[in-house]
Amino acid sequence: MKSSVLALAAMATALAAPAFADKLDDIIASGTLRCAVVLDFPPMGARDANNNPVGFDVDYCNDLATALGVTAEIVETPFPERIPALMSGRVDVGVASTSDTLERAKTVGMSVPYFAFEMAVTSNDKSGIKSFDDMKGKTVGATAGTFEAIALEKQVKEWGSGEFRPYQTQADVFLALSQGQIDATVSTSTVAQANVKTGNFPGISVVGKAPFDTDYVALFTNREEYGLINYLNLFVNQQVRTGRYAELYEKWVGGDLPDLTVPNVYR
Predict the structure, then answer these.
(1) Whether the Cβ atoms of residue 55 and residue 45 lie closer than 8 Å to each other
(2) Contact indicator for 227, 22 with CB cutoff of 8 Å
(3) Closest C-alpha among 192, 175, 232 to residue 22
(4) Which of 20, 70, 111, 125 is least enclosed by beta carbons within 10 angstroms?
């Protein structure tokens, strides 16, 4: 009798508890997926001649929305505002070339890597910088809060000479570089080549690789949304399996397709 009473009490408690919908359900019910995307980071995100968002991350958000059966809404989000935009509820998911650092994982939930960047050095032609080591003692800069900015600032401190300057956007960095306000920057190789090719920043050249780790980037959402995070992981997997990842890479970047797995960690 006592066991039956306890069981009934537990059942009543469970029925009385409010049911919370997963964020995945909320997105599907709303009919819209709001993606944080950086639009001054070609070829990952930019605006075309008609001011429409374009780029690898834009297409990736559109693909995710299609898989969910909803409409994509691209929310332009500068690098420093990516996580604040999520925390304030302005976006549902970040498709914003966001490095999967342990520090960020304390705040947001991150998927498996969906893209991987190598780092390149771009210099002002008048600076005389022809390699990464030539930056020692020079004035350098990068976009605040990015993987490369953190690594470059640390390197300047280790060198014990020179100056590091943080900037709000990639466009600000390359404008400062072109105008001679800084001598060099480290950015992803994709961004470096794209900015040089535009011709919008005269007098700069990509001069070599930076000896920083490969920058693996992830989709992100609220940390507690396990259902959505699981869906994002499977979506990345499907993008690779179906060949869509390779298709988008060829469309926006070209060249050898980066491996999204870390050797001896996961395959």
Answers:
(1) yes
(2) yes
(3) 232
(4) 20
Q: Which whole number is the average pLDDT over 191-210?
A: 91
Report the alpha-carbon distance of residue 250 to residue 267 in Å, rounded.
22
Q: Is the pLDDT of residue 232 over 60?
A: yes
Residue 135 near residue 153 (C-beta atoms within 8 A) = no
Contact between 115 and 101 under an 8 Å Cβ cutoff? The reply is no
Instruction: Give yes or no for residue 21 having a pLDDT over 80.
Output: no
The pLDDT of residue 3 is 53
Token representation of residue 237: 């997997």
DSSP 169: S
d(CA 256, CA 23): 36
> What is the mean pLDDT of the segment spanning 29-54?
95
Cα(36)–Cα(56) distance, integer angstroms: 13
219/244 Cα distance (integer angstroms): 16
Provide φ and ψ at 226, rounded to 5°: -65, -35
Q: Are 213 and 168 a contacting pair, CB within 8 Å?
A: no
Q: Is 161 helix (H, G, I), strand (E, B) or coil?
A: coil
* 139/133 Cα distance (integer angstroms): 13
Question: Beta strand pairing status for 163-167 and 46-47?
Answer: unpaired
Joined together, the tokens standing for residue 212 give 């920083």
pLDDT tier, 7 (very low <50, low <70, confident <90, very high otherwise): low
* Sheet hosting strand 215-222, strand order edge to edge: 71-76, 32-37, 93-99, 215-222, 108-117
